[in-house]
Every structure is written in structure tokens, then in C-alpha cells.
Amino acid sequence: MIDPTNIPAEEPEVAPDAMTPTRRPQPVGTDAPVRRRRIVRAAIVIAAFAVLGLVPALLTLQPTFYRHIDSLAGQYEPWSTSTHAEAGCEACHASPRAPAQALRRARMVGEFYLMLAAPSRAAASFPAPTNESCLECHSELRTVSPEGDLRIPHRAHVAILEMECVECHQYVVHELSPEGGHTPTMAGCLTCHDGEKAKNDCWACHTEKGAPDTHATKDWLIAHADHSTDPECETCHKWRDESWCVECHSHRPQSHTSDWRAVHGDRIQTHRSCEACHEEPFCARCHGRLPQLNLDPTLGLVR
User: Fold this and answer.
1) Distance, CA of 271 to CA of 130 (rounded, Å)
2) If DSSP states are collapsed to H, E and C, what string results for the chain?
3) Distances (CA, A) of 138 to 70, 128, 134, 293, 297
4) pTM of the full predicted structure?
């Protein structure tokens, strides 16, 4: 017989979901608008950074941007009429390598905002062009074209002597030389071509720079003083020191022959080149102070 006290009590039935926490029902489609708002906000931020960075980057790539900056406006006009007007600032003033170009553009974005914040602030200076930048265009396919009769062995200067292009060509784009052109000045050439470091003979650099036609006249040695103030003479002669003139003028001229005292009065009527060496007091030493006094050398009064 079964003892009723030993019969285990039946456990009450529990609903299957009673042991798990109940979740509050969510409205259908609530996550989608939140996600869209986040995407829109992110897109706005990205677009803002893109505009704030891209617009200045594009503006500073245009040379016309710099004509409105006081410290650089003077550099723009000469560039716009130079042979390099088709090359932008970055082409010459930054390395052609991609990392250097990117770094330069990032820097100019910063300069753009600095100029907006402080308009009176001087803009960043541009580094001098390097040979690497020059050779991007002036390669074997597009060589340099010297003006006039110049003969410049560029390979010898760049490859052998390892000179920088801008050492000679500092007047190519942004300013004119003292002579008013873009060609390297002779003064610059003669810093090396001084006869010691390098040859200073005319033919070292010039193919046709011989004596002009005026030098071929028979009386050139006598009459050249009349041309001494001609600007064309300065092309060659102003670069020589005074010793070049003294080389001739310290000696008796060829025109002063043994009968020069007797004939110089006639010669002076046709050649006024005496003043190149002699001033009026020199004449007065023999002829006195009176212009009408024309002493005849045969009188023996003139020594």
C-alpha cells in the first residue's frame, strides 16, 4: 500500500516564456531613419572637409590667384608675358614627384586660410626651381633655345659642373635683367668666365660675336672715340676693366706719326677723336688760351 505522504507533489506548470524577460515591442521601421540621419550627417561633414580643402587647393593651383596678393602681384605680370606662361607655379616651384606635389598643395591650403585670416601677412615664398623641375620640360625632346649668337653647352654646365639652372637663368620669368631682357647677363657669365675659372674669350660663348662692321673701317683706331657712347658698344666693352683700354691708350697711337706735330691741325678738322685722350688744357699747353692763336709748328715755337 502506497503511503500518501511519500507521493511527490506536482510542480505547477509554468508558461514557456515566463522565465525569459519580456521585450517591449518596437515600432516597425524605426532603425532606418536613424541610420539615414547618421549617413547624412557623415556625408555633410565629409563634403564640408572636401570643399574646405579642395577649393583652396584648386584656387592656389591657378597663377591668377596670386595676382591679388600684394607680395606676389609683381611676380604675376612678368610671368604672364614670358615664355613660361603656359607653366603653372607648381610646375617650376615644386618637385615633379607626386609626394612633393601633394605636400606642396597641402601647404598652400594652409597658406590660403592664413591669408584670409591675416591679409597683410606676406604670402609664403616659393622655392627656387630645381634642375629636376627644369628638365621635366627641357629634356632631349625640348632643348633650350639660346637667343642671338649664344653658344651655351648646357650639358657641361649641368651634368659635369653640377650647376643649378637658376644660377644663370634667374631672369627667365619673374623679372628682367638690368639689360631689360631674359637672357643671362654677361656680368653673371663673367663671375665664372674670368679667364681663370673658365675661358673669357668671346668665342667661348658666342658663335658670331666678331667685331662689328664699324671696326673694319680704316680709321677705326682714330675714330672709335666717336662711337664710345653708343649703347651697342657696352654689349662687349663694358664688361672689360680699364686695363683693356689702357693697353692701347698708354702708348702712342699709330696715328701719331713722326710728323704728327705738323699735320695734327689738319687731322683734327676731320677727326674729333682727340678728345678721347686729350682735354682742352692739353692743347692750351702749346697753343695758349686764345682759340684764334694758331701757331705754325715751323716757327719753332711749339716743342
Assistant:
1) 54
2) CCCHHHCCCCCCCCCCCCCCCCCCCCCCCCHHHHHHHHHHHHHHHHHHHHHHHHHHHHHHHCHHHHHHCHHHHHHHHHHHCCCCCCCCHHHHHCCCCHHHHHHHHHHHHHHHHHHHHCCCCCCCCCCCCCHHHHHHHCCCCCCCCCCCCECCCHHHHHHHCCCCHHHCCCCCCCCCCCCCCCCCCHHHHHCCCCCCCCCCCHHHCECCCCCCHHHHCCCHHHHHHHHCCCHHHHHHHCCCCHHHHHHHHCCCCCCCCCCHHHHHHHHHHHCCHHHHCCCHHHHHHHHCCCCCCCCCHHHCCCC
3) 31, 16, 6, 70, 69
4) 0.54
Only one residue has cell 662692321, namely 213
- In terms of Cα–Cα distance, which of 199, 182, 181, 178 is closest to 190? 199
Q: What sign has the CA pseudo-torsion 202, 205, 206, 212?
A: negative
Give the integer Cα–Cα distance in Å for 131 and 166.
8
Mean pLDDT value of segment 80-87: 86
Residue labelled with grid coordinates 653647352: 153
Q: Where are the domains of the chain?
A: 38-127, 128-208, 211-303
Per-residue pLDDT of 152-170, as tens digits, reads: 888 888 888 899 999 998 8
Position 143 confidence tier, pLDDT thresholds 50, 70, 90: low
